[in-house]
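Email to the structure team, subject: Response regulator transcription factor model.

Hi all, the expression group asked for a predicted structure before they design truncation constructs. Nothing fancy, just the tokens so they can compare against earlier work. One-line instruction: predict Response regulator transcription factor, return tokens.
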Amino acid sequence: MRIVIAEDDPLLREGLALLLRAESLDVVATAGTPDEALDAVDRHAPDVAILDVRMPPTHTDEGIRAAVEARRRHPSLAVLVLSAYVEQSFATELLTGGVGGLGYLLKERVGRVEEFLDALHRVADGGTAIDPEVVAQLFTRSRRDTRLERLSPREKDVLGLMAEGLGNSAIAERLVVTDGAVHKHIRSIFAKLDLAPTDQLDRRVAAVLHYLEDARRR
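Reply from the structure team: attached below.
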């Protein structure tokens, strides 16, 4: 896996590079600004770009705009965005965009090495990886749709892990239950959210996006 890292904090930037190289991953370039990041992506054609949300010069959304531009230039590029805080507008847009190979993690997650590496590999494989805290906050902000209130606490746990991008087996392992139990919870979630099976609708995706769309409209 070839990786470009874009982070304006040199300590975190070099720490990430050391961590990934220690895992035998190929960090082909590091960058401290959005322009340097785009140049590195163009030059090295990495599999994954890891970008900070807030970068120079204004430290607002430069990293996000660089990520969007990098994907425009290289549609197959996987992007993992890091942020110190939950940026609701971007997180919701990411989850409702319907495109794989994208991840959104809080920086504190990097210190949990196994979780961070799992998210990185998931994104590189074309999946999504959403920080649990982001999912939790979006759940809280999506109360207007009363159908969500039909879900039991365990079903909300399952749906939250689905939103992080986990498959059934990974959800079962995280919740310490059987695959069969997860399957039953998911069927119940579909029923309570009025998601009938059709040829045109992926119910798993629809269940996750159901409450996130409401958050985006706020």
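The first strand starts at residue 2 and ends at 6. The chain has ten helices and six strands. Ping us if the truncation boundaries need rechecking.
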